[in-house]
Amino acid sequence: MPKSKRNRPVTLSKTKKKGREHKENVVNAIRESVEKYESVYVFTFENMRNLKFKEFRDQLKSSSRFFLGSNKVMQVALGRSVADEIRPGLHKISKLLRGDSGLCFTSLPKEEVVRLFNGYEDYDFARTGSIATEKVELEEGPLDQFTHEMEPFLRKQGMPVRLNKGVVELVSDFVVCEEGKPISPEAARILNTSCLK
Fold this sequence. Notes:
Radius of gyration: 25 Å
Order of helices and strands: HEHEHHEHEEHEEEH
Largest sheet: 3 strands, antiparallel
Low-confidence stretches: none
């Protein structure tokens, strides 16, 4: 039979699976941390940015170790039942690993850890699909936060703008996002490019 001439998608990226060896390394690292640190905490996160987490992790680098990844691999490392746990009571911790969660091994006292986790909250621009926490509305008139080069970009995002003597001007009031509703891709781009606060 002749070879098919249909266009087929060809992936150009070549990635290798992490495989069993990587999982075993994670399990061993978690088990070493159980021996090295006095306490372990399970933490959950929502809409986490890698750079922000890295900054937080660097604050605790000297006294703590964090693990994020497959919950099942972390559960295996701690032990899923009384029979295969590596220390008494650790199987209870593995049951708490659900959804977006991670492990924090530390030598710090409990009050200090709770204070650090509760006190750390960092703001960043909203992503597409996240729920708006407030209504952002731009009023008619000049938009000083944008340069004249941004006018075509803003028009593409659906904003009613025009150039008036080199200044970007909003022709009518424009609602970027409504409180409690998901943020559209256009609104996310507008919020990212402008510091609307």
